[in-house]
Write a structure and sequence with these properties.
Length: 152
């Protein structure tokens, strides 16, 4: 049985589950669920973001490969986690059902939306939680477009 079939049999919804943004200090600045997955309370969400930030940094230091920037993909039986880190240290990651196609492109789109709607917002303060309606709307549209394009 494939990983995607095993996940579907376990009741894991297809497609993108959530999008997270972690600042360079390891603080969670944005998290949004896009699938019917079990909820996590606020404190646990903050803790998980901090843990991911730490694991990402440790993996970059322990890697035997020169120039490694950290974990880019974590695959499990029930979900995949795909991550990118910007030159400024901000991390964007998405969780999705196993073998979801198009996550790299989605992360590039999230980064572009972040630049367009968050960083260009004169009311946004760096390293603070993202509260920008246009970012939310366009991100939801991008996730829906990916899920629809691949039939999720």
């Amino acid at each position: 049985m494939s990983a995607a079939a095993a996940a579907a049999a376990a009741g894991v919804p297809p497609g993108v589950h959530s999008v997270w943004v972690i600042n360079k200090s390891g603080g969670l600045v944005y998290q949004k669920n896009y699938a019917d997955v079990p909820g996590i309370d606020t404190n646990e969400t903050l803790r998980l973001a901090s843990i991911w930030h730490s694991l990402h940094a440790i993996s970059a230091q322990l890697s035997p490969v020169e120039g490694c920037t950290g974990i880019e993909l974590l695959e499990t039986e029930h979900f995949d986690l795909r991550c990118i880190q910007t030159a400024t240290g901000t991390k964007f990651f998405v969780t999705a059902s196993p073998r979801t196609i198009g996550l790299d492109q989605l992360l590039r789109t999230v980064y572009d939306l972040y630049g367009d709607y968050v960083m260009k917002n004169p009311f946004y303060e760096l390293e603070m939680p993202i509260r920008c309606e246009l970012f939310d709307q366009n991100l939801a549209y991008a996730v829906r477009a990916l899920n629809n394009a691949f039939g999720y």
